[in-house]
Structure formats: structure tokens, C-alpha cells
Amino acid sequence: MTPLIGWDIGGAHLKAALLVQGQVQAVVQRPCALWLGLDRLAAAMDAVLQTMGPAAAGADHVVTMTGELADGFADRQDGVAALAAHVADRFGEAHVRLFGVDFQAAQIRWHRAADARAHWAQIASANWWATAQYAAQAVPQGVLVDIGSTTSDFIAILQHQVRAAGHDDHSRLATGELLYHGVVRTPLCALGPRIEFRGRHHNLMNEFFATSADVYRLTGELDLLHDQHPAADQGAKDLAGTRQRLARMVGLDARDAAPGDWQELARRWRERQIDEIAGNLKRVPEAAGLDATAPLVAAGCGAFLVPELAARLGRPWVLFDSLLPLADASCGPWARVCAPSVAVACLWAEAGTVGE
What we know:
356 residues; alpha/beta; Nucleotidyltransferase, domain 5; 2 domains; six-stranded mixed sheet; 11 helices; 37% helix; 21% strand
């Protein structure tokens, strides 16, 4: 079998999974500030392929994306077409397929790069469906909970089928299936206008002074390997730098309070974010009519929040990577983080050959 690379081209990260003989051999994520230009994507692809090494030579490529939302593109159609052309130019049109979904028929559609502009609405930001569809093959009913660096997806699965109420970002924001909350890049000023600190509620500074990565760095839950973008102030990501960024949010410096005070403030922001996530997540199984035994399927770099979410909802949970054909268990954590890239590769591996 020809090696296969599944790509998930996001606006902030590039994720890729290498399949060899139908097994996940490597999974890689690199930061990719796509809003600054396609040269950032080219550099990130170089880094991914270098990490994968000779095993990726001669691979075919399947692509899903959310990067068409980057504000360097005129609109989403233009973004889909530009990203498709970039990948086809690099790897050859015959060796590339784009993941798409016919949402009316609830069917996957695989497109050639040359047809991307015509079918852009099926391709744009459809990566969540790939992850949910792959999970649905193993899980009769459940909810995919993919908590990433920037966004969270909550997708119902019933009778081994994806049961999404929305189909694009606009409609999924309305249903609560898409929430712009993540554990790395979410500005803390987006989590509400006030917060309790040392027994008193304070207004917050609505500035990009700190992000959710600062919160989960202080709680000790964020894997530092998943913290790939610069801090809000471009400063150090050690405890001192993290406390200083939280302090700015309430008009102080880190020296103005004890380390334990900043730890407690981080926990309050954590609670605020998990409340928001839980409120949206709760709506999805209720709307789909799932029973109480339906598990949460945990994916994304914020999967560490899923056990608490499952306890709140009274549901079991499983890790997305436990459903995958991993060549080595060490691939599991990155496969969880880069779930759409792994899923799109596995789905194509089951569907056919790119060069057909």
C-alpha cells in the first residue's frame, strides 16, 4: 500500500497523520499562522515532512481544512480554492484528494483539487465530520467532544451515524455544536467581563493580555508540547511569566499577590470555561435523544477536561485514540490532539486509492 498522509490545515496549526499499511505510524502538529500568508503553510509542511522522515516518501495526500477562514483570503470559497491549489502544486494533482461532505445526503464526498472552488461549501470547515464519522464506526451512540486550542466541537452519534443539527460554522454556532473556546488560544477577556479575585469581584481589562494557555499552565493540565504559539505578550511561558499575564487582567503585577492567589485565579477561569463548555455540550445529547449510557468520545489537546464534563453529565467517556489502528501506543496522545487529520486518512484508507 502507498503511504498516506492526512492533513488538517487550520488557521493556527497544521496537523498531519501518516498511515503505512493501514496503521497510524506518526502524527505531527506544527504552528502555522496562516493569516500571515501561504508561505507559513509551506514552511509548516516542510517541518512536518522532515519529522516524518523517509516513511512519508511517495505518499498520497488527503486534506481537510478550516484554514479557509483566515482573513488573508477574500472569502471562504477563495480560501478553499487557494489551499487546494497549494497542496496540489506541491504534491501533484493526481496524488491529492479533498475531504468534503454532502450535508443534505449526509455522505462523504472526495474531491480533486481542481474542483475545490466548485465544491467549496462541502469542503470548508468539514474536519469535524471526519472525526465524528470515524468515531461513529466504532461507537453506536455517543458525543464526540473535541476540545482544541481554539474551538470545541460537540457532535452527536446515533446508530453509528453522525447526527449533527448544523452543517457549517454559522449553523453549528447556533446549535451549540461549535463553541469558540479552546485551552490554548482563547483570550481570557472572552470568558466574561468580571471575575472573583481574593474574595472580591473585579471587572476585567478587555485586552489581549492573557489566554487560556496561561490558565491551564498554572493548573498543570496543559501539555507543554501542545502550547505551540507565543504567549499574548510574546514573553516567557514559565510560572513567573504566566502569573504576570494573569495579573494584568485585573490591573496588577504578579508581585502584588502571592503565587497561591494567582493559582486560585486560574482555577476560577478554568471553572468559568468548563461551565460554558458543559452548558453547550449538554444540549447536544438531549437534542439527539441519546440515552444516559452514550459515552463522550474525547479528542483534542483539551481532552483532559472530558472526565470532569462526563461526571457533570453522568456519562461514561472514552479516548478517541482508543478507536484507532495505532502502530505504536506512543502515537495515541498526538492522534487524540490531531484527530481530524488521523480520521480523514483512515476514512480514505477504507474508501480507495487517491490515484484512482
